[in-house]
Specification:
The chain is of the alpha/beta class. It has a domain of 304 residues: Alpha-Beta Barrel (TIM Barrel). It is 45% helix and 14% strand. The chain has 17 helices and 19 strands. Strands 9, 10, 12, 13, 14, 15 and 16 form a seven-stranded mixed beta sheet that branches. The protein has a four-stranded mixed beta sheet with strand order 2-3-1-11. Strand 14 and strand 15 form a beta hairpin. Helix 5 packs parallel to helix 6 and helix 9 crosses helix 10. The protein is globular, with a radius of gyration of 24 Å.
Length: 469
């Protein structure tokens, strides 16, 4: 996407922002770290020497491992590896025609779904916001669900430094101590910039805890062009670089060498209504550029997902999600959030959309698997058997390969109209709902040592009391 000349222009742009305008850090300890490192400080604003920023960024590992409690689900972040997680953050849930506030039961059910599909490497973190649980302690129940209902790695809570520390303590219990998780991280957490150019205190409090514990954080500018950044894609890319690189530099000041991920969440608003838009051509272009820039700086990166603005799991939801997922694959995104279940601009976690997105992930994985070409694949013997004007349905080559020669969808329908009608004339959303329920009915929790489960339960009970709930 970007020529060497274009990268030079963008490089000069982020350098001007950090050195002439500066970045705001709303946490005295963060400002003090920059001051001690020789950077220019004016209140909460830090003007950064670009070369200093790059020196700090160079300390971050280019690739790293993250452990799961089932070693078969360990992941490697960086390089040519892609890791996928479900939707993150919505306060609402859609199930069929019902849109409602999310509950703790919804959170648990989405965790169970993520455990059930190998296309997802993690359930994520805030899969939905359980509004029926007490605000000050719900993070304890969420982390406990992620630890017990799945044996994949999970994302930490970032609402506050207290919540981050609880996540770390519970992770220490699950994995046998602080030393174990410092040697090989067990969580990844999302730290969002309050764009433009401001890192807030709650996010920074969480970042400090995770980086001190050597747990990777995704430093992510939150850019909707026209609202949180100027309307041109190059200006958004420059701002994104300034924000992400400054956040990464801070993590390296907190603990040199701690793992980080270059984060990107870049789209635009509707200039008629002001509403956020997702699955747009502009976001796809920004995504492709971001991948190239992250590799330019030698950093693992996060972007993309099944993003869309649709209110229902309909055709709009599908084509907008593909508009984002295709460049997500093309750019080789290392960490993909929102890969399943995102609806309505991120306000809704949708059960049916979750299943539709898993089908999409399954198809894209096949599409992006390198094609094997050898003599056997040319099937010359099949031509000898069938001859001129025949058909290959009954050929030996076909009969020995028909079960797995082509992708077999779990959701899509290719039956004729009469059969489709006899089976209830179900559209994609209805079939997804049935498959979702079947998956939940067949769910089996992964085994967990009783002593560890008890210790986690006791921690949650004690901390809930200490937090006043």
């Amino acid at each position: 996407m970007l020529s060497p000349d274009a990268i030079d222009v963008l490089d000069r742009g982020w350098r001007r922002i950090v050195s002439e305008i500066g970045v705001q850090f709303v946490k005295p300890e963060a400002v003090e770290l920059f001051r001690q490192a020789g950077q220019e400080v004016d209140g909460q604003t830090v003007k950064l020497d670009p070369d200093f920023v790059l020196e700090q960024v160079a300390k971050a590992p280019r690739e790293f491992d993250v452990q799961a409690r089932n070693p078969a689900n360990n992941v490697h972040i960086g390089g040519d590896n892609m890791v996928f997680g479900g939707v993150y953050g919505p306060p609402f849930v859609r199930e069929g025609n019902v849109r409602r506030e999310a509950t703790m039961l919804d959170f648990r059910k989405f965790t169970m779904l993520a455990q059930s599909f190998p296309e997802l490497d993690t359930a994520g973190g805030v899969i939905c916001e359980p509004n029926d649980a007490p605000l000050d302690s719900r993070h304890l129940d969420m982390i406990f669900a992620l630890q017990t209902l799945t044996d994949k790695f999970y994302m930490g809570n970032v609402v506050s430094g207290v919540n981050a520390l609880d996540t770390i303590k519970m992770t220490e219990i699950l994995f046998g101590g602080r030393k174990t998780i410092e040697e090989t991280p067990a969580t990844i957490s999302l730290i969002n910039c309050n764009s433009p150019l401001r890192w807030d205190d709650r996010m920074l409090d969480a970042q400090f805890e995770y980086s001190l514990a050597n747990q990777p954080v995704i430093l992510t500018p939150f850019l909707l062009m026209g609202a949180m950044s100027p309307v041109t894609i190059p200006s958004a890319l420059v701002q994104q670089l300034a924000e992400a690189l400054s956040g990464i530099a801070l993590s390296q000041l907190i603990r040199p060498g701690c793992p980080v991920i270059f984060g990107s969440f870049l789209s635009n608003i509707d200039m008629q209504s002001g509403s956020p838009c997702f699955g747009t051509p502009e976001s796809a272009i920004g995504l492709l550029c971001t991948g190239q820039l992250a590799r330019h700086f030698g950093l693992p990166f996060r972007t993309g997902g099944g993003l869309n603005s649709s209110q229902m799991p309909d055709a709009q939801a599908a084509y907008e999600s593909l508009m984002t997922m295709m460049p997500t694959f093309l750019t080789g995104t290392n960490m993909v959030m929102h890969a399943a279940g995102w609806l309505e601009g991120g306000l809704v976690s949708c059960y049916e959309k979750f299943i539709i997105d898993v089908e999409l992930l399954r198809m894209l994985r096949v599409e992006f698997t390198p094609l094997q070409i050898d003599e056997a694949a040319l099937a010359f013997d099949a031509h000898l058997e069938v001859g001129h004007g025949g058909h290959f349905l009954g050929a030996e080559h076909t009969m020995t390969r028909f079960r797995d020669c082509f992708y077999r969808p779990m959701l899509s329908s290719s039956v004729n109209f009469e059969r489709w009608s006899r089976e209830g004339a179900l559209d994609t959303s209805a079939r997804a709902a049935a498959l979702c329920q079947k998956t939940l009915d067949n769910y089996e929790p992964p085994p967990l040592d009783d002593a560890i489960r008890t210790e986690l339960e006791e921690y949650v009970t004690r901390r809930r009391g200490e937090l006043g709930d």
